Amino acid sequence: MDPIRHTVEDAETLIADGYFEAAAQRLDRAIARYGARPWLIGLRHKHRLDHVPTGQAAGPKSAGDTNYARLSTASAQPYQVQSLSDWPPFQPPLPPDVGAYYMFHDTIPDQPPQPARRLYRIPNATLSIDRTRGRLSGFYIFDEEGNYLPELSFGTTPFRLSSGIHNLHQPVGFIDDRFSKFNVCHLWFDKLPRIFELREGAPDLSQFLMTTDTSYTAEIMETLGLSLVGHSGFTGPEITLRMPELVISSNSVRTAHPAHQCYRHFARPVAALNTASPAPKTPARRIYIDRSAAATRRLINADAVWAVLQARGFEALRLEDLSFAEQRSAFANARAVVGVHGAGLANVIFCQSGTPVIEILPATYATRAFWYAAAYFGLTYRPLVAALSPDAAPVDYARFVQKRDQQNRADVYVDPAKLSAHLDRVLQVAD
């Protein structure tokens, strides 16, 4: 492969995963070696990879900007640190008949140890949120003297507005992370469990903050009797907030996807919700998660797949058309769930123990999140590996290397005969 193109692909992968500084360094090395090629310079400019050096004073983010305070880093630790209880590694059993599919074998036997979890409490803190990056909002934390705390922040362009600051009047728990675009999987698996993690060290905490807010999240928080800082009064792509105390967990910054570890607070939001407002009982149903309106991972032969499912009594649900309460009720009363890998499968956490979950795995892209969640909640996880196309050669998983940015969006093909046989085996056992 051309080395310039290889560099661009590597940098785009790092950017997609939120490693902006590493991407900038990769591009800088390539520029020094190959010169200021348009692809390299263009990618650096597109993603605003002009890193502000930590430990140095920083002026405005760009020429002409005036509404930014000067930045400096603290010379001493200006916050309290509490160690949080660790959790044993979670290793679910392998599902039957998974073959060589990479997700079930790649690094599973020897997962790297997770960093020790800590709780940080910053008095009279300031938090700035950069909402210009779309799904990867930057967040920057400052102490009461206005010093920047890079070890608790995420992003490459820290700032603190000098005017238009929003003042909050009680302690706030920050439960977000670098994946800021709304996604029900990250919400239930990563963000909401942090409420209980933060309250492990700060039990009186009742107000929480995310970089975005939605009616879906607000409905959940109201049911739990908790307050979420609303964004209705915030204008512009960059905001700065000041509060009497900010509480944040180390896994907001250092852990990519805590769901993959199923840590000890993972199930607590569901348990609290079931206690506060049990899901109503409705007739049991077999659910198929319809992704026809999605932009990625759609079924190439959707009509043929639906014919197989409909013949076995499945009901198609487009989750984007349902409220949170409707989604929860549907899955709480599900007899079986089928869906292509995607955020909608996060709803299986509401299913009753033993419910069959059939995740259709794209041939070259998936994560362990729903396998882990199904095992953690006592569900019967029976995945089915799809193909890239009707005539695609089988993937050689012994040599396979995942390139997330290239493979995440690909549509999938499911052999109807293979699906029929798989469903009949799973549903016969379940019934």
UniProtKB/TrEMBL annotation:
Domain of life: Bacteria
Listed InterPro entries: Glyco_transf_61_cat, Glycosyltransferase_61
Keyword annotations: Glycoprotein, Glycosyltransferase, Transferase
Pfam families assigned: Glyco_transf_61 (PF04577)
Molecular functions (GO terms): glycosyltransferase activity
Domain spans labelled Glycosyltransferase 61 catalytic: 185-358
PANTHER family, sorted: GLYCOSYLTRANSFERASE (PTHR20961:SF124)
Protein's name in the database: Glycosyltransferase family 61 protein
The species this protein was found in: Sulfitobacter geojensis
